[in-house]
Amino acid sequence: MNVGHIDTDQLKGKQFVASYSGGKDSIFAIYKAMQAGLMPVGLLTTYNTDANRSWFHGVTESLLQNVSTSLAIPLTLIKTSGEDYAANFEKTLVLARGQGAEVCVFGDIDIEGHLEWCTQRCEKAGLMPYFPLWNGNRKDLVYEFIDAGFKSIITVVDTSRLPKEFLGKTLSREILEAIERSGADICGENGEYHTFAFDGPILTRKVDFIVVGIVERDNYGILSLDVPGA
């Protein structure tokens, strides 16, 4: 079976967990899976035990929990070091299967290495991998995300590929066009930028946040976010 082009008819009504990073692609994949008739039963977020934030997108546990509440989908944090990342992801998938999940949804678009890694984790855990965004046009997908009513803020910028001035910008067609003019991939699929999605059609209410500060590390600018009053 080609997991990148799976027939969604065989998935209708199946329960799924989602690999949820906090960013635009993962929440858009959840949205697409729900549109295809799948039923969400859990969010799985890998959590960096050294940084005390989610891996790659750097979102705090409090903010992730608030998104979970707004989505009405329970959250499981996969607290892991980099060394045990794959093993701990697989263990959590096995637990999800034991609780009724049949499918795991991912937000990857077209990077084969990501497809292979996610597929291998699912095969070992006995779940079916599903990639609702797979092989979509990057520009079309990110515009569709915006036009559907989702809102997200740029939280991480690889300053070697995208000017740090984009840090903290809320994605819009104008900002996306400026990203493309800068020479970076408009969707950030190559890691040029990461986001935190805080509002959209599948959230019952907007997730409020505050900007705590900006951290510069190596080639990266990182926007530190937290819940108001933290």
For the largest beta-sheet, the strand count, sense and barrel status come to: 6 strands, mixed
Bin the strand percentage: 25-35%
- CA radius of gyration is 17 Å
What CATH calls the topology of the largest domain is: Rossmann fold
Q: Helicity range of the residues?
A: 25-40%
- Tally the helices: 6
Overall outline: globular
CATH superfamily of the largest domain: HUPs
* Strand-pairing-aware structural class: alpha/beta
Overall pLDDT metric: 92
What's the architecture of the largest domain in CATH terms? 3-Layer(aba) Sandwich
- Give the CA-CA distance, first to last residue: 47 Å
The poorly predicted ranges are none
Topology:
Elements: E1 15-19, H1 24-35, E2 39-48, E3 53-54, H2 61-71, E4 75-80, H3 85-98, E5 103-105, H4 112-125, E6 128-130, H5 138-147, E7 151-158, H6 173-181, E8 193-199, E9 210-217, E10 220-226
Parallel strand pairs: 1-2, 1-5, 2-4, 5-6
Antiparallel strand pairs: 2-3, 7-8, 7-10, 9-10
Give the key terms.
6 helices; 2 domains; alpha/beta; 10 strands; six-stranded mixed β-sheet; putative n-type atp pyrophosphatase, domain 2; Rossmann fold; 230 residues; four-stranded antiparallel β-sheet
Question: What does this 3D model show about the protein?
Answer:
The protein is an alpha/beta fold and 230 residues long. It has 2 domains: 3-130, 3-Layer(aba) Sandwich (Rossmann fold), CATH 3.40.50.620; 148-226, putative n-type atp pyrophosphatase, domain 2. Helix content is 30%, strand content 26%. The strands form 2 sheets. Strands 1, 2, 3, 4, 5 and 6 form a 6-stranded mixed β-sheet that branches. Helix 4 (112-125) links the parallel strand 5 and strand 6.
